[in-house]
Design a protein that fits this description.
By secondary structure, the chain is mostly beta strands. The chain is built from 1 helix and 6 strands; from the N terminus they run E-E-E-E-H-E-E. A hairpin with a 6-residue loop joins strand 5 and strand 6. The N and C termini lie far apart (45 Å).
């Protein structure tokens, strides 16, 4: 069964992505590395307040070659990772929008 994982992407190395499942605030699950499918979709995600789910937005230019994937900081890159039926490959990556800082 395909799976949607709220994840923190830690590293992109060619066609392999290392990520950890995002748990409660600030907590992470174990790291795992999966290859991406040949036709992987990399898009900016946007949060739908009505369904409380991440939805696909516009495509990310250059896909996994985009500079955002080569300059991942210590905190990682928040995203929703969608896997194929056997959880063997990543078929879609929805990049989470950056959280807005509350101004005081």
């Amino acid at each position: 069964m395909a799976e949607e994982i709220r994840a923190i992407i830690l590293k992109v190395d060619g066609d392999k992505i290392t990520f950890a499942e995002a748990k409660k605030k600030g907590e992470r699950g174990p790291e795992q590395t999966l290859p991406v499918a040949d036709n992987v979709k990399v898009v900016k995600g946007r949060f739908n307040r009505e369904t409380k789910k991440m939805e696909a937005g516009e495509p990310v230019s250059e896909g996994l070659k985009n500079p955002m994937f080569s300059n991942i900081g210590e905190k990682g890159l928040r995203a929703t990772v969608v896997t194929d039926e056997g959880n063997k490959k990543i078929t879609e990556i929805l990049i989470a929008p950056e959280r807005k800082k509350k101004s005081q």
